[in-house]
Each structure stands twice: as structure tokens, then as C-alpha cells.
Amino acid sequence: MNLSSGPDPQERVKALRIKNNVRLSIFFFIMFLVFSILIVRLAVVQFIEGPELSKAAVQIGTKSLDLVSIRGTIYDAAEKEIAYSLPTQSLYFRMEKTYKSEQDEEVMKLAQKIKTAFDKSGIQQSKPMTLEQIIYAMDVKGKRTLGIYPRQLKTNLTKQETAYFMEHRNEFPMLEVVEENIRQYDTTPIAPQVVGHMKKYKGITNNLARYPYFEKLAVAEETKNSYLASEEVGVAGLEYMYEWALKGKNGAREYPVDAQNRIIGAGKITKPERGHNIHMTIHPEIQKRTQQVMIDHLKKIRNSSNKYEYAPNAITAYAVAMEVETGNIVAMANHPQYDPNIYQDGLSEEEFKQLGSNNLNGTVREVAQDYGDKKENWRHPSSLLYLGSTMKPLTILIGLKEGLIYPNTTYPDTGVTYIGRQGRQTPIHNASRKANGVVDTREALTKSSNTFMIEKVGNPLYKTYGKEKGLKIWDDYMKAFGLGQTTGSGFPGESPGISDYMQEGQSGQSSLAYASFGQQGKYTALQLAQYTATLANRGKRVKPQFVSHITDANKKVVKRYGREVLSTIEFDEAHWDVIEDAMLAVSAQGFQDAPYTVARKTGTSEQDVYGGKRVENAVFIAYAPVDKPKLAVAVVVPEGGYGSYGAAPIARQIFDSYHSVYGLTK
């Protein structure tokens, strides 16, 4: 039997050697490929991608610090600084964790530590921060500031305070001293509701719809990063209206840094561009005198023993003085006023409550004065008032233009007339139920006959055209004189007024009857001033101007503003003469000895308020001198009683002030 034997041992060794040699060759080949790829890649990195990677490395190792631009200055017409920016140091608190409440033990300890630090800084502050104020400013619950944004604890730090917190940074890692600009306002103050005020940009980002200018910037790709969260921006008045000019352009300081965040080379600075300056048309002497006479006169009529002058609830007043030719607003006064500097350190709850509505400009929008209780506020009129008899010059013009009356039209004024259907008629009286006897068109305006306006203009307009067309005609005339639409000034938040004659549920006769003597349209003091200037301009409606020109940082003029006629309405010269003659003869307190000729009209508008109460508001308009008008003035005093007593004396002081500065000739 043959037995087969296994593989030859030598053959097995030979085969194994060949197999290992193949594996080793494959291994060396793979290593060759890997090293070849690495060498090629290294060459690409060094010679092709090297510059870009170096640039990226610099970018990653760069520390950037934004530099906020210095805001432009606001000057009055005498070239005095009213609002200006100064560099300052502010202390900010960073929210590094979430706290349960303001009474959290950790919050209390931190606030006390910060207060102790202020006390240790060695400064006797004129207004030292209390523990409660520090906790309020920290805003740990995010009531006023979003959690991601630092909270400003204090601005305008003293040198000692700045040095202390800089030296003790390790003890206060959550605090940061930031250099920024602080806005300073004239402490007089000069027209604060016109100038406006500022807030941190972070404080308005939740409500950008309220600020169309900032909303537009925020959604555009090229402008969405125009502002820093901690940067102050204009949110009211001219500060907001001219934000585009005042802002300037932010800069930056960039440094290369190493892994330990240490500066390792020369920095690059992009200098910020200073904002432009705006020069107001408001004259300080005229504005100050207007503000002071308001205070004095309101006090007088609240305590007067004269029954015609006595107005115990007259605590507010609004006045506008507008140049007839240029449209320049030389005075725009609100009473009460406020100090815009209060916004520098942020408002406490108590300060905010005390401020009330005083920061709002009642000469251009509706403002309800704060009487301390919301229900009590409803018992008093706002700044938006019926014009009363100051409407009558326009009523007469409409009647003359439409051929409803003529200069020699006469009317037996018994002091009362009636509107409505037979058996359901409503009596309407003249002021004080006075019967003026037979009056012509001029006398009806001079003596302020309500019944003439109704029987000779309001009712005939309704009977001639009917309700819809009659009201449309009336409304067109109102708008031609700036009533029922904004003045075109562009002032933020300006109201178009309220045209009550267009509301539903009224008969055409009733609407036009009440409108004819000024009881169906509520308008602002600025609208009233533009209306008066349009009378003086004999139909030319001029745009109100708040700024005369804009200059750059070198005081070079970059933009000028001048007379701008918005619309023109034609009337016969004889019709204008009727109005002017009648207004020259109007009796008004304080104008008996005026050294210049004044066309004027008093008004006492009635208004029903909450609780069934009816109040009387003082309204007054005038322009001077009559032969070549220079200045138009409008004054409204809610609950001021008769216009002749409650408003006219304020206007006289405004004219005298303008006369002393610019001159009014007979």
C-alpha cells in the first residue's frame, strides 16, 4: 500500500517568504503614496493656500473694539448748544446667570458689594446710588432689558470711580467699565419736547415698529449693523427726526492677538466719523419768555377774582409762534416741561411716574395731562381741542367763496338759533347768550356770532349741496388751511387732528352747523399756527420748519432749509380784506396798546368730558403786523375759559418778545 506524504518543508518556507515579500511591497507602496500625498498637500498649502490661510489666522487672532461716533450738536437760533455729547465712562452689569427674583440672596449680596465699592471709591456723590436703585438698575428679571444685554448701572463715572472698578476687576468679573458718549442738554431747559431725548438702542429693539427709521435700517443687509446695543439713539423730537444727520459713523480698533489674547502687533484704527450738527429755528429768548409767561399766567387765572378770567383747572398750556414768510418755528412751548437729562442714568419707577406725559409734545399730538389718577384724567381735556370761534375767519371765507354771503350781508342776531326737525329742534346760543342785533359779515366775525355762522354759512351749505357733498366741500377747505391733515413738518408723531363733522350718526345739518362755529374739529396748536399763517399769507400754506440748516464737524453748511409752499387756495382780495378788517377789530386782553398792528381772533371751545361735565377751553390766534405779516401765533389753554382772558395775554408776550429780537413794524 502506497502512503502519500505532506508538502515539502522547504517548499512551504519558500511560499511563505514570497507571500511576506508581496505584503511588504504593498505596505511600502501604500506608505509611498501617503507620503507623496502629504508632500503634495504641503506644497499646495505653502505655495497656493498659504496667503489665504495666513489671512484667516490673523482674523482668528484679531481683537476688535467698536468705537462709537460722537453725535452732532443741536444749536438754537442764537447758536447756543442745546444738546451736545461728551465722552464718559459707564459701569455695566453682565447677566452671567439666571436669578429667581430681585430678592435673590445672591443678587442682594452682589448689589451690596457694588454699593460698598461706590462708597469706598472716596467720592462724595451729589446723588449717591442707594441699594434699591442698584438692584433696580441690575434688572435681573429683564423687565427693561433683554437677558443678553448688559445693564447700565451708572453713567458719567468720576475718575476715582473709574479707577476703582478698573483696579478691582478681579473682584467684579460681572462688571465692565465702558467708554461711551453721554448726551447733555441745556438745563434751562429750551423746548425739551421739541429737542427730544435718547435711549439705548437695545431698549428699542423689541419695539422697532414704533420707530420706522430704525426698523428700516434693521431689515436692510447693508445697514442692519449700524448700531451697537449699548449705543444711544434719538427716540423723540428732533433727536429722532434728524437721527440720520446727527448719528455719524462708528469706527473700530483692531489688534492682532496670540492664543493668550495678548496683543502681538500694531493695531489698525478706523476712525469714527462725527455726526452733523443741526441748527434750530427756535430762538432762546422768545422760547424762554413764552415758557415763563405760561407759568405766570396759568397761576394768575387759577387764582383770579375776575369771573371772566378765573380758570381753577388750567394747569396746561401750548403755544406755537411761526414766521409767516419762512415757516420757521421760533417758539414751541409746552407746559409743564421736563428735563431731558433725567434719562442719562435711566429712570427709576418713581421718576417715571413723576414724569407722566410731560415728555410728550402736546403742540403736535394729543397729550392727556396727568392728574394723578386715570379716571380723573378723563375728566379733563387733552391738548387736542376744538377751535371754537378761531374757526370763524375760515367759515366767513368759505361763505364768501361759495356765494352764500357777501361782505354787506346782514343778519338779525337774536343770540339764539335752532337746528333739527320741527318739534325736535335744538337751540344754539351765542357765547353768554348775547344778542348782537343786526350785524353785517364783518361785525358777525368781530362779535363772534355763532348764529350768523350757522344761518348764513352752515345751513345754506347743507341745503345747497346736501350732506355728503356739503361735508366734502367743508373738509376740502379745512385741509387747504392745514386742518384735518398733518402740517407737512415731518415732526415725529404729529397728529392730523380729529374731524368730528365726518363721523357717523350725525345729520348733515348738525355736522355743518356745529362745524361752522368751531365745535366739530379738534386740532393741534401747530395746525392752528399753520392755519393762522395761511390766513396771513392769503391762502399760501407754508411748511413749518424746525431747522434752518445743517453743518458738518468743521461748521461747513451741508444743507439749508427755506420757505416751502405746500398748497395755495385762491380767494378774492376783497374777501381777504373782510377777514382782516374784522380781525383787527376783535377785542382781546393785552392788545389794547400794542405798538404794532395785530389781526386776531379769540375762541372759547366747549367740550364734554367724562362724568357729564362740560369744560371751556381758551383758544387764541393772531398775526402781525397786518400790512406785511411776519409772525403768526397760536395759543391753547385746556380749561382756560374765555380765549380773550385765558390765552390772549400769553400771545401778547410772544409778539413782544419777537418784536424785541427781530422787530415788528406797524
Automatic annotation (TrEMBL):
Keywords: Cell membrane, Cell shape, Cell wall biogenesis/degradation, Membrane, Peptidoglycan synthesis, Transmembrane, Transmembrane helix
Domain Penicillin-binding protein dimerisation: 69-265
SUPFAM superfamilies linked to this entry: beta-lactamase/transpeptidase-like, Penicillin binding protein dimerisation domain
Residue ranges occupied by any Penicillin-binding protein transpeptidase domain in the UniProt entry: 318-655
Domain of life: Bacteria
InterPro entries on file: Beta-lactam/transpept, Beta-lactam/transpept-like, PBP_dimer, PBP_dimer_sf, PCN-bd_Tpept
Membrane topology: Single-pass membrane protein
Protein location: Cell membrane; Membrane
Pfam family, one: PBP_dimer
Membrane spanning stretches: 21-44
Keyword presence, Cell membrane: yes
Family from the record: Belongs to the transpeptidase family.
The protein's name in its UniProt record: Penicillin-binding protein 2
Annotated source species: Paenibacillus arenosi
